[in-house]
Amino acid sequence: MTPVLVRQHLSSAGETSRADLGARARDWSEIQERMLVPLYEAVYERLEVGPGSRLLGLGCGSGLALLMAASRGAAVAGVEADSAERLALARERLQPETGASRARSRPRLAAGAPENVTDAGAPPYTVVTAFEPIGCLAGDSEGLGDLLASATPLAAPGAAVVLVGWGPPERCATSSVLRVATKLADPLRGTARWRPALRDDLEEVAEGAGLRPDGSGRVACPFGYADLDSALKGLLSTGLFDAAIAATDQAQVDEEVTEALHPHQRPDGTVWMPNVFRYLIARTP
């Protein structure tokens, strides 16, 4: 999952202010989160998510993937442990209609563990998604196993569990920018160490959680931005550069990420980075 936010790099006092965190969550919601829309669509189409589906999103961010599932008729719930600000945006985005007639379909959102959004005796989930890509930083799957272990008992037997990973570096233009995090972060901290995605990353996570792999796919998800400033804001909102910022400072990371983005800037000023992401469908026991 996305690394926990490093809360020490934006304010002169050494702590990230609530306003800073809110702005960063907005950057995620307005710029970055939409980059994986082709992935969400491909997964929902393959699994025929719609009326009758009960979907649980792990690391639901600001709720775009949940909103797309709800628009297909699914009942949705989500948990977001890393950012209270993203979760607040998800609540705004998924604000249900009022009235008793909507009570059963209201999205359930909470921080922390999956059981926080699941009432005793509620029908089991038929789809569980973990859309935050793993496989570009060493240890970025840590914590996902615990989330899956908490979610599996809440899912129906044979329910689909979707895991997502970065594709091979040669097919992910953004890899060259992510390497900035490796170069700037203090290697003694053991964080933010970029590594190429491995073919069996997702299978290893699934099998470690007691899930049975049952198919996979690849989806092109280009990262496109209006300009360099938008690209910088979007990428920093992911949290993948937090350790680099903590080890150096905001200005240096801004400068070096912007420099790494220049080769991907087109003549009209837009930034375009083709990427491929892989998803795995696994099944609960």
From TrEMBL:
Region (Disordered) location: 92-117
Keywords from the UniProt entry: Methyltransferase, Transferase
GO terms for MF: methyltransferase activity
Protein origin, superkingdom: Bacteria
GO biological process, one term: methylation
InterPro entries documented for this protein: SAM-dependent_MTases_sf
Protein name: Methyltransferase type 11
Organism: Streptomyces griseorubiginosus
